[in-house]
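Quick one:
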Amino acid sequence: MYTNSFAEHVREAVRQIPKGETRTYGEVARTIGHPGAARAVGTVMKNNYDPTVPCHRVVRSDGKIGDYNRGGRERKEALLREEGALR
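Output:
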């Protein structure tokens, strides 16, 4: 399993995603130097409840929004629309 430092690197990378933009799980993994770790990034996001980490800005590579542990897909979509990341 990945260490706490891996999870913190993921959380810090996600904190850097600007409002109104998204990144895929794979892009976040590449950003932190672990290009094959998209699923692990998803696991970190699934277990993240830190309000300073905008995990709703991380989406799937197939263009789908994906799940959201703080209210489901509908809530994630609403947040992305509010921020201007979705039209």
